[in-house]
Amino acid sequence: MAQRLVRAKRKIRHAGIPFAVPPAHQLVERTAAVLAVLYLLFNEGYSASSGADLVRRGLTTEAIRLGRILCTLMPDEPEALGLLALMLFHDARSAARVDSAGDIVVLSEQDRSLFDGAAIAEGHERLAGALRLGHPGPFQVQAAIAACHVGAPDEKDWDEIAMLYDRLYEMSPSAVVALNRAVAVSMAEGPGAGLALLELIAPNGLPDYHLLPAARGDMLRRLGRRSEAAEAYREAHDLAGTDAERRYLERRRREASA
Question: Can you give the pTM of this predicted structure?
Answer without folding.
Answer: 0.88
